[in-house]
TrEMBL record:
Swiss-Prot/TrEMBL cofactor(s): FMN; FAD
Domain Flavodoxin-like: from-to ranges: 72-217
UniProt-annotated binding residues for FAD: 447-450, 465-467, 471, 481-484, 669
GO CC list: cytosol; endoplasmic reticulum membrane
EC code: 1.6.2.4
Binding of FMN, residues: 78-83, 130-133, 166-175, 201
One GO molecular-function entry: NADP binding
Compartment(s): Endoplasmic reticulum membrane
Protein name: NADPH--cytochrome P450 reductase
Biological processes annotated in GO: response to hormone
Entry keyword annotation includes Transmembrane: yes
Domain of life of the source: Eukaryota
Length: 670
């Protein structure tokens, strides 16, 4: 019966804690919590106020906070870096006049703070505004432009300002952005303290800027009642730091934005984070002649990059290795030295002139422009290092605003196409420290090409059509275009190694009509054919989808039918299968008198006028702005005058109206 013994009656024993114990325990815990809670409360509230700083985003986008230590801010709207360069020069100038300035990217700041500049004593906002494309703001000034347009109630009465505009007279909307900013700020109550400056890149942009600047600073001094310090000495913006023992994983090797971004690619891809696109095709387009015209295809599979026909592809090229090596030899420098150039102004958002730390070799290969003729400020700052008095005097003269100095700069630097290497070779006593040279040289910029494909047909591929730039200068040197020669060497190999191109897409207004039934007239001689290859592919694709497509007319021009008739097979096939309603080609040098696209337009004026005037045709022009685009526009004025029974003024207005309606679009360059 042992197994039948009753179990000990545990449930009947005294519990471990009585209900009174639990009550007291809970009470004590409650009191402790209450004491802790109450102990916090009596602390003085101002202690928390001190910690109550604005959110980081607010702090970063406020230029007023930074301006409390300075009085001049120079905003720049820059697409190719020139306006930014001018802004840096003006902010540096301020020091010479006993003031303090900073260059600022409007994209990085809250421009609504302009009205608060009245809080800063003797404050001045300078705007260096470039115009891009068809009178558009540059990418980094788009938000500022929108803000100006939308804020009619803004009161800028406390703002002192001036504008220097950068443009090109060969374009229809010459300096449109600079003119708009100048006019709009005045409308909103701001005070213009010096006249709008107009820089023309078709003439001599540098001379325009220097002449404006020479008059601008005395006007500023007079306005604020300050005297120039007369300090003409060189002012360094950055200090050199060498890194002899750095971990090479922390060193930039050509990345535009994030360190190692070329090794671990992460979308979205843009100007600060380009995609490394493998080159899958690189073929020569022309059959003869002394030029090299090429067709490249970039693979964008897996990048999530989207594009439309008419968009631009931007590529980041690298400088010719031979030129970089020569620069190192002339200056007797070990280009593999790892360095940083650190901004001496701690307030500046721009900590380095290019990604640092890096080597001189990487900086001169990927980040700095060593092929364009240097601007006068570079010559001025470098002059102090010339040991030959005559060479030093000539450099200072070229940087001055005297007529003699301007003429010397024009002939010796610009007309002779001397880059920094040529200048150092031809001035044997000039041997500047390489870090100062790197500080002064402008950034190497992305190059834009009209995309020669349609994403409807080639969703994972972007096509480029370009001509390799190479010419002999007056000094007998061979100058090579940076990007086109770099692209030419992007060979497609079978050994598994892929040549890649850092790229991103820039959206364009150059678009096919929304209605496929609208006729299109495309005029694109030479490499101006590029966007129209995309348009033709897209119109063909629409036809295949069973859509009704309007007339598609192409005007192409080249020198010789047997030499540089680009995409001849593709164009003739498009005509034979009805995608192109009519293909008109001008071979300028195949006969005694030259024949260009504008001559063919006049020959076909009746059918063109019918398409434009009665069928709502859209006109597209791509290529050279200086001559071709102007001559084509004149031809359309003639046609409107002749067949529309208009006066010259009416004909000009008629074409202008087409532009306003988006029916006359240009994608041109000079």
């Amino acid at each position: 019966l042992e197994d039948k013994q009753p179990l000990p009656m545990v449930d009947k024993e005294e519990p471990l804690f009585s209900s009174l114990d639990i009550f007291l325990f809970t009470l004590i815990i409650g009191l402790v919590i209450y004491w802790f809670m109450n102990r916090k409360k009596p602390e003085p509230i101002p202690e928390f106020k001190k910690l109550d700083t604005p959110a980081p985003t607010t702090r970063e986008t406020s230029f007023i906070e930074k301006m409390k230590k300075m009085n001049i801010i120079v905003f720049y709207g820059s697409q190719t870096g020139t306006a930014e360069e001018f802004a840096n020069r003006l902010s540096k100038d301020a020091q010479r006049y006993g003031m303090k300035g900073m260059a600022a990217d409007p994209e990085e700041y809250d421009m609504g703070e302009l009205s608060r500049l009245s809080e800063i004593n003797n404050s001045l906002a300078i705007f260096c505004m470039a115009t891009y494309g068809e009178g558009d703001p540059t990418d980094n000034a788009q938000d500022f432009y929108d803000w100006l347009q939308e804020n009619d109630d803004e009161n800028l009465s406390g703002l002192n300002y001036t504008v220097f505009a950068l443009g090109n007279k060969t374009y229809e909307h010459y300096n449109a952005m600079g003119k708009y900013v100048d006019k709009r700020l005045e409308e909103l109550g701001a005070t213009r303290i010096f006249d709008l400056g107009l820089g023309d890149d078709d003439g001599n942009l540098e001379e325009d800027f220097v002449s404006w600047r020479e008059q601008f600073w005395p006007a500023v001094c007079e306005h604020f009642g300050v005297e120039a310090l007369g300090d003409e000495s060189s002012i360094r913006q950055y200090e050199l730091k060498e890194h002899p023992d750095i971990n090479m994983n922390k060193v930039y090797t050509g990345e535009i934005g994030r360190l190692k971004s070329f090794e671990t690619q992460k979308p979205p891809f843009d100007s600060k984070n380009p995609f490394l696109a493998p080159v899958t095709v690189n073929r020569k387009l022309n059959k003869g002649g002394d030029r090299h015209l090429m067709h490249l295809e970039l693979d964008i599979t897996g990048s999530k990059i989207r594009y439309e026909s008419g968009d631009h592809v931007a590529v980041f090229p690298t400088n010719d290795p031979a030129l970089v090596k020569r620069l190192g030899e002339i200056l007797g420098v070990n280009l593999d030295t790892v360095i940083s150039l650190n901004n001496l102004d701690e307030e500046s958002n721009k900590k380095h002139p290019f990604p640092c730390p890096t080597t001189y070799h990487t900086a001169l290969t990927h980040y700095l422009d060593i092929t364009h003729p240097p601007r006068t400020n570079v010559l001025y700052e470098l002059a102090q290092y010339a040991t030959d008095p005559k060479e030093q005097e000539n450099m200072r003269k070229m940087a001055s605003s005297s007529p003699e100095g301007k003429a010397l700069y024009q002939s010796w630097v610009l007309d002779a196409s001397r880059n920094i290497v040529a200048i150092l070779e031809d001035l044997p006593s000039l041997r500047p420290p390489i870090d100062h040279l790197c500080e002064l040289l402008p950034r190497l910029q992305a190059r834009y090409y009209s995309i020669a494909s349609s994403s409807k047909v080639h969703p994972n591929s972007i096509h480029i059509c370009a001509v390799v730039v190479e010419y002999k200068t007056k000094t007998g040197r061979i100058n090579k275009g940076v990007a086109t020669n770099w692209l030419k060497n992007k060979v497609v190999t079978d050994n598994g190694y892929k040549s890649t191109v850092p790229m991103y897409i820039r959206k364009s207004q150059f678009r096919l009509p929304f209605k496929a039934t609208n006729p299109v007239i495309m005029i694109g001689p030479g490499t101006g054919i590029a966007p129209f290859m995309g348009f033709i592919q897209e119109r063909g694709w629409l036809k295949e989808q069973g859509k009704e497509v309007g007339e598609t007319v192409m005007y192409f021009g080249c020198r010789h039918k047997n030499e540089d008739y680009l995409y001849q097979e593709e164009l003739e096939e498009a005509e034979s299968n009805g995608v192109l309603t009519k293909l008109n080609v001008a071979f300028s040098r195949d006969q005694e008198h030259k024949v260009y696209v504008q001559h063919l337009l006049r020959n076909n004026k009746e059918e063109l006028w019918k398409l434009i005037h009665t069928q709502n045709a859209h006109i597209y022009i791509c290529g050279d702005a200086r001559n071709m685009a102007k001559d084509v526009q004149t031809a359309f004025h003639d046609i409107a005058e002749d067949l529309g029974n208009m006066t010259r003024t009416q004909a000009t207005d008629y074409i202008k109206k087409l532009m306003t309606k988006g029916r006359y679009s240009q994608d041109v360059w000079s």
